[in-house]
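Work Package 3 committed the consortium to producing structural models of liganded targets before the mid-term review. Because experimental data for this complex are still outstanding, the team generated a predictive model from sequence and the ligand definition alone, so that downstream docking and mutagenesis planning could proceed in parallel. The input record is reproduced below exactly as it was submitted to the modelling pipeline, together with the SMILES string for NAP.
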Amino acid sequence: MAALSQSHHLHSNCFSRLPTPKSKPLRLSSTRVRMSLQETGPSLAVVGVTGAVGQEFLSVLSDRDFPFRSIKLLASKRSAGKSVSFQNHSFTVEELTADSFNGIDIALFSAGGSISKEFGPIAVEKGAIVVDNSSAFRMVEGVPLVIPEVNPDAMEGIKVGMGRGALIANPNCSTIICLMAATPLHRHAKVKRMVVSTYQAASGAGAAAMHELELQTREVLEGKPPTCNIFKQQYAFNLFSHNAPVLENGYNEEEMKMVKETRKIWNDMDVKVTATCIRVPVMRAHAESVNLQFEKPLDEDTAREILKNAPGIVVIDDRSSNHFPTPLEVSNKDGVAVGRIRRDLSQDGNHGLDIFVCGDQVRKGAALNAVQIAEMLL
Ligand SMILES: NC(=O)c1ccc[n+]([C@@H]2O[C@H](COP(=O)([O-])OP(=O)(O)OC[C@H]3O[C@@H](n4cnc5c(N)ncnc54)[C@H](OP(=O)(O)O)[C@@H]3O)[C@@H](O)[C@H]2O)c1
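The resulting structure, written out as tokens with the ligand in place, is given here.
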């Protein structure tokens, strides 16, 4: 329900995109509202509910009929008091404070790394299981970094009701989308080396970036200078190297996330990964070109069959009509699409494949993956 479409304004419109409440508005102030029909589920908190991922959390919780007995919607002081419709009720957004987590079982965080670093440990201390979308804890030893279709074992034993809090990290969105497709092939033939080139959408940089792309597009078409608040350069009708900070080794942080997180998720410190991450003026959903080198041979027909049977994967690979995955086709969808499945001619025998992958990174790359993790906590 709260899905962000390719053409929507974000910050200004994110509440109006939710359905109008059909029943009398239910107000949430300092206490949590009890949803009458779901009295046995966990108590939830959504941190960063006004953002791109936060809005998608509400949509995914609804779509998957996630059971909960209460829900608390949290954001910054700026949003406190605003009204959000969710499941035909109107909720009031509360300011995130240290007291926000009293009595919370599961806290879904998507308010940026510094907020996670400050409030994640507080929530855990109060007994909540935190599923964090930021990069704050991903590489911390002992913190499971989980894609449910790939490495559910990493969070084994962590359950609501176990008597203590815990932290689980959601991987980087590009990493999730890449590994959804690469892992079934890796299980079959073991990936030795992976070369990834990304084409990343505005939504990956949050609600304000989506708004800026839309605004700039209008401005450029009207012959006006583009407003550059979120990105330092013109985004509409352009593309550029990912805006993450560039490190001493020449890679940017987004690229190094792909390298490090893949090793942790696959529990394989030897896999060689390199990435080039690019922002493209697409509103929503990332695309990635992935080149794989295998230890064992894997021909393209077998690879196609493996992918067709892989959970969460949709194969779109129609050579005769030149129809392959696009960001538009996967927007607001759960599945990650894979196509352009072909033998890499530059590698000997059947030891190399090229694939092209598209996935909605606000959904499978963030909110959906986190809610799937939350489902495994029940
Ligand atoms: N966008 C994606 O595709 C994606 C994918 C994977 C992971 N992530 C991660 O998810 C997080 C959120 O991303 P986003 O794209 O949803 O960003 P966003 O659209 O900019 O939303 C940020 C959210 O954080 C809240 N926030 C900011 N400062 C706060 C504070 N001091 N206290 C409480 N809440 C505060 C904002 O509330 P206000 O509205 O009140 O400012 C808003 O709800 C980031 O860590 C990002 O790296 C994003």
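Reviewers should note the following from the model. The pocket of NAP is lined by residues 48-54, 75-76, 78-79, 96, 110-113, 115, 133-134, 173, 203-204, 206-208, 361-362, 365-366 (CB under 6 Å). These observations will guide the Year 2 experiments.
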